[in-house]
């Protein structure tokens, strides 16, 4: 990955937005982790809406795209599809749910650290295999996480109406 000891102010701002979309405080409302604060494994696996991914599947998907951004920043092409894009939940228990959250946090934290150190020049570089630059991709990652945070919040409300209660 190309990094520069003169990290840019813009990269720092993008890193801050990535941090806020995942942990909060976000301007729009609850960030990903804020939505998940009282979600247990039963609620995370619930599918209260037909043909919609569960909260757990959405969190796995968000982590996939944080990792894809890291891979791309490292200079490699990455375009997850199928189960690589939406990994299935393998073990649906509390320990596995807590591990999924911890793993997603670790990947996201690595992305934020990486972004905070890149230069303006790097932000203008084209993403490997894409027609857009890293600036565009990183803003897209933040937008993607907020989109899925909203879905998670709706699923949480729908699950609680079905008596699947949070912690």
List the main descriptive attributes of the protein structure presented here.
167 residues, mainly alpha
Extended strand count: 0
Give the helix tally: 8
- State the low-pLDDT regions, or none: none
- What share of the residues lie within helices? 55-70%
Strand content: under 5%
Question: Describe the biggest sheet?
Answer: none
Termini separation comes to 41 Å
Overall geometry = elongated
Order of H and E elements: HHHHHHHH
Question: How does the helix and strand content classify structurally?
Answer: mainly alpha
Please specify the SSE layout and strand pairing.
Layout: H1 9-23, H2 32-36, H3 41-45, H4 55-73, H5 82-85, H6 94-116, H7 120-124, H8 134-161
């Amino acid at each position: 990955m190309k990094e520069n000891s003169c990290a840019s102010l813009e990269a720092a701002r993008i890193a801050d937005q990535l941090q806020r979309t995942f942990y909060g405080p976000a301007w729009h409302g609850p960030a990903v982790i804020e939505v998940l604060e009282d979600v247990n494994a039963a609620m995370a696996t619930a599918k209260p809406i037909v043909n919609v991914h569960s909260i757990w599947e959405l969190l796995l998907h968000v982590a996939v795209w944080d990792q894809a951004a890291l891979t791309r920043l490292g200079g490699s092409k990455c375009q997850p599809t199928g189960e690589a894009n939406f990994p299935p939940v393998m073990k649906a228990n509390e320990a596995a749910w807590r591990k999924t959250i911890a793993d997603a946090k670790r990947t996201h934290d690595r992305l934020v650290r990486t972004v905070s150190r890149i230069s303006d020049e790097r932000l203008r570089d084209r993403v490997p295999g894409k027609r857009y630059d890293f600036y565009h991709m990183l803003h897209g990652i933040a937008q993607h996480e907020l989109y899925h945070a909203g879905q998670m919040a709706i699923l949480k409300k729908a699950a609680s109406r079905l008596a699947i209660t949070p912690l």
